[in-house]
Amino acid sequence: MLTLYDFKSSGNGYKVRLLLHQLRQPFIYLETNILKGESRTPQFLEMNPNGKVPTLALGDGRYLAESNAILLYLAEGTGFLPSDPWQRSKVHEWLFFEQYSHEPNIATPRFWKNYLQVGEYDERELKRRQQAGRDALGVMERHLRENEFFSSQYGVADIALYAYTHKAYEGGQTLSDFPAIETWLARVRAQPGHVTMEVV
Ligand SMILES: N[C@@H](CCC(=O)N[C@@H](CS)C(=O)NCC(=O)O)C(=O)O
């Protein structure tokens, strides 16, 4: 049985939970309170030396970290990941975009504004990241004007980008400025087996 070490309000963790639900793959959920340092204990660091959720225990002594790596692992051989090398590379392109241009600028402002006190983060850095986040949403918006999903069909690229995009307003973004994104968010929510972030 798979065990997912996760934190309920983590978008990175939600990506994995959402795919597991959509695959109808049973798993054990273990809440790991990152705000109390539970991902930094010696026991946790044995599983993931980087001390972060999500971390997936395969049940045979192997552990996998990095949300998008976990998505790729779980989606192998399913309709959530194309087998064609070009289509698959385009999925990888969006997953790298998510980690480099999107997540640090959408998820981090959300974390700062919701979990830290004013003064615990740098306001100028917040503004810089919010602008970079807006630019990343602009890239998505332009893609979605011409395409239904981030792949030939709904799959892991959509799951990875949905996780923090649907909460982007919590980091100061105005999603109504991005109508194609709003339509895509509704399309993602309508997919079979969709669960909200609160479901574990
Ligand atoms: N690139 C990683 C990022 C993981 C990450 O930043 N996890 C955060 C929660 S969203 C965490 O565990 N933070 C706790 C810590 O760093 O101590 C992924 O995609 O999984």
What does this structure look like?
The two termini are 16 Å apart. Helices cover 52% and strands 8% of the residues. The chain folds into two domains: 2-75, Glutaredoxin; 85-189, Glutathione S-transferase Yfyf (Class Pi), Chain A, domain 2. It is an alpha+beta fold. Strands 2-1-3-4 form a four-stranded mixed sheet, with helices on one face. It has helices at residues 11-22, 42-47, 67-75, 85-115, 123-146, 156-165, 179-189, and strands spanning 2-6, 27-31, 55-57, 63-65. The model has no long low-confidence stretch (mean pLDDT 98). Residues 7, 10, 12, 34, 39-40, 51-54, 66-68, 99 line the site of glutathione (GSH).
Summarize the structure.
The chain is α+β, with helices and mostly antiparallel strands and 200 residues long. It is built from seven helices and four strands.
Topology:
Blueprint: E1 2-6, H1 11-22, E2 27-31, H2 42-47, E3 55-57, E4 63-65, H3 67-75, H4 85-115, H5 123-146, H6 156-165, H7 179-189
Parallel strand pairs: 1-2
Antiparallel strand pairs: 1-3, 3-4
The structure holds glutathione.
